[in-house]
Every structure is written in structure tokens, then in C-alpha cells.
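I hope you will forgive my troubling you with a question about protein structure. The record follows directly beneath this note:
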Amino acid sequence: MDALIPALLAVLLSETGGKTQALALGYGLARRVREGVSALFVASLIAYAVAAIGGHFIGQMLPAEARSLIFGVALLAAGIPMVTKPKIAPALPIGGGMFKSIFGFARAQFGDAAQFIIFALAMRSDSPAFGAIGGLAGVMIAGFLPMAMGGDWAAPRTLQFARWACAIILTVVGFWISINALGIVNRS
């Protein structure tokens, strides 16, 4: 249970203004919300299940400090690029039905920072399933907001500010966890 809320928050922050959210906005603007929500759910469920299973098995081979360090690095890997490089929205699939929509979201999700966060949380916690569920909830919230709001979604400057704020939070927390895992901070 200790992975549910951290996964939800970390994935929600890391997906702000990202490829998945931009693709979800495309579904909202095309008035294909039901298809977009379903495709996002299935693609995210698969991506995060793979990450949680992999993280759980690899985590059993590592000491606690290494698992914490990997989690801190995952947060840093999510936060730092949010400031340095803008995300380009993938093209909205035309035709092909649900399978093509799932594949579109899967391309945006597999290898993404959010999947790395779930992988690292599954290594660090005793409940990888809760990490995957929390990540799934976080990405669904991040994806549903632009779908529901459509053209009223945040203005470019507002979204950029939100993205930078999320980047700062992820980077600071990731740096702090990494420093603690390395034992640099005095723990007296």
C-alpha cells in the first residue's frame, strides 16, 4: 500500500504536458473521448504491469540503498527533461479502430519516464501491484483532464509553467532520495 500514493503523484506530475497528455488532448478535440479513455487504460495497464513485474523481480536482487537510489534516479530522469526539452504530440491515429489507438498510447508510454518510475517503485516497495495501480490512476487523471476539457485545456504558457513546477518537484524529491540513498546526508 506504501506505493499507491507515491506512484499516483509521481506519474501525474511526470505526465503533465507530456506525450500521453498531448495525445489525450487530440482525442478530446476529435470528440473520441470514449475511445481515447479505453485505449489509454489498456496501454497504461500493460505498460505499468510490465514495469511492476520487472521491478519486483530485479528488486529482490538489490540492497535497499540501491533500490532507493534507482527510485531517486527515476524521479530525476522524469523531472530534468521536463525543463530542457518540450514534448511533441504524437499524431492521432486515423482509422484502424481501437487497436490502433491502443498502439498509439503504447508508443507514448513504453520507455517513458512514468514507466521507469513504476519500475523503480516496484523495486523499492513490497507491493508492486499497488504501484502499478497508483501509476494507472495517475496517468488516467493526467489523460482524462485534457480529453474532458478539449480546447479549453491550459494555454501554452500556463501548461509550460505547470510543467516546470512539476519538473522542479520531481527533481528536488529525486535529488533528496538519491542523496539519502548514497548516505551523503548525516543521519544522526
